[in-house]
């Protein structure tokens, strides 16, 4: 590796995803107010939530087998936390704090941490029952996924609109969230958008927060006009893998039910409607060249790639697979930054949103060569971010939400009732 991760927080974030960390006995994570490790969401996060230098939030693997051999070790000295690599101190880090609302209960008596969890600084909610691919015999789940292992453990099974709303309210008050992300798996009858509808309406009407949804691609694409109308700001489609034979192998349920093309069609359609449309892939499950092709395809359509790093989670079909090598990942994330900037896609605009489970495209500037040539574009996005953040911080979330809508590059092409 050419770059020095002691000086480069982006490279350190990437390297920690790939290598994990060992936690020294001196550490008192929960006693010091750190966030407890939760097995939630669609199978890529299970680790320690921390904040690296330059404010980079991350979720570092600790429980998986590969992390036991990591060159990185977390130490506690005089109440502070430091990452070491082979006896050398790399940097001081901050533990992401455990929100007090995690231990509060909803009026129905459920622990709020089982309703939603903070991923970095946003609230993630998996509101409905387990993805149906996990219930088939034999299972048709994506082979890296742990959702069917998690629900009912750290995550409640079914969540009412009121339970979710009370949790969102508590997270807004204490953790100052600006964004709620709803995630569903596949359900027979393509019911996932209908299921999410009442949650979205309630949160948008009462709190005006930004809302994102991550579901399979509905066969009736006009449904996304309705989702836009009720206040969805971001849609995300996880096709995971661009190489079709590999997609078929890793994601049998998705292939049988939808096929890769339907994911791609949905991205193309929705990138012309929403403020943000994401195509999500998992780097490390196909060749780096194929991941880069996916990034180019997604950005050509005006959507923004979300690039996760494969993590062989315990209990999944791929638990014994090796994690990807950092050196193989660097060109992917370099391309992610350059492709977004070349196509003038608005990255880094979302207010007060730091994501721990993936490298955000704007964080990839730490890996990119010649990033200074985008100085003016970055300054423009920074200004937009500061303006929106100030509105949210002042409690003007409805105004901020309207401004996000006005900033939508697609606005002038939308039907009048959606502008
Ligand atoms: S679609 Fe795949 S990744 Fe998503 S919840 Fe179902 S099995 Fe997991």
Automatic annotation (TrEMBL):
The keyword Protein biosynthesis does not apply. The keyword Iron applies. PROSITE patterns: RADICAL_SAM. Residues 117-348 form the Radical SAM core domain. Gene3D superfamilies: Aldolase class I (3.20.20.70). SUPFAM superfamilies: Radical SAM enzymes. One of its GO terms (molecular function) is metal ion binding. This is Radical SAM core domain-containing protein. It comes from Candidatus Fischerbacteria bacterium RBG_13_37_8. The lineage of its organism: Bacteria, Candidatus Fischeribacteriota.
């Amino acid at each position: 590796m050419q770059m020095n991760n002691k000086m480069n927080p982006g490279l350190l974030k990437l390297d920690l995803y790939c290598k994990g960390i060992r936690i020294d006995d001196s550490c008192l994570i929960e006693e010091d107010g750190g966030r407890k490790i939760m097995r939630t969401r669609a199978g890529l996060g299970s680790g320690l939530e921390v904040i690296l230098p330059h404010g980079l939030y991350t979720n570092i693997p600790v429980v998986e087998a590969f992390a036991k051999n990591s060159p990185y070790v977390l130490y506690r000295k005089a109440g502070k936390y430091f990452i070491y690599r082979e006896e050398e101190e790399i940097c001081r880090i901050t533990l992401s704090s455990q929100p007090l609302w995690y231990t509060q209960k909803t009026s129905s008596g459920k622990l709020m941490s089982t309703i939603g969890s903070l991923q970095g600084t946003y609230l993630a909610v998996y509101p409905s029952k387990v993805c149906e691919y996990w219930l088939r015999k034999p299972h048709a789940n994506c082979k890296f996924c742990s959702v069917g292992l998690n629900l009912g453990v750290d995550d409640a099974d079914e969540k009412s609109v009121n339970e979710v709303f009370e949790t969102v309210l508590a997270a807004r008050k204490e953790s100052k969230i600006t964004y709620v992300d709803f995630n569903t798996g596949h359900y027979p009858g393509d019911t996932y958008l209908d299921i999410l509808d009442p949650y979205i309406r309630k949160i948008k009407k009462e709190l005006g927060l930004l809302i994102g949804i991550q579901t399979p691609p509905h066969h009736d694409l006009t449904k996304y006009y309705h989702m836009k109308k009720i206040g969805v700001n971001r849609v995300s489609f996880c096709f995971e893998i661009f190489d079709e034979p590999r997609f078929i192998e890793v994601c049998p349920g998705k292939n049988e039910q939808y096929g890769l093309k339907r994911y791609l069609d949905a991205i193309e359609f929705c990138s012309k409607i929403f403020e943000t449309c994401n195509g999500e892939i998992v780097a490390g499950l196909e060749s780096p060249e194929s991941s880069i092709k996916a990034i180019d395809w997604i950005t050509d359509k005006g959507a923004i790639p979300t690039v996760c790093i494969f993590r062989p989670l315990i209990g999944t079909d791929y638990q014994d697979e090796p994690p990807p090598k950092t050196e193989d990942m660097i060109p992917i994330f370099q391309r992610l930054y350059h492709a977004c900037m070349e196509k003038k896609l608005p990255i880094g605009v979302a207010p007060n949103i730091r994501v721990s489970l993936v490298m955000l495209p704007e964080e990839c500037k730490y890996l990119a060569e010649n990033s200074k040539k985008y100085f003016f574009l970055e300054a423009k996005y920074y200004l937009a971010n500061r303006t929106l953040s100030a509105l949210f911080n002042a409690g003007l979330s409805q105004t901020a939400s309207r401004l996000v809508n006005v900033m939508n590059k697609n606005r002038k092409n939308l039907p009048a009732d959606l502008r």
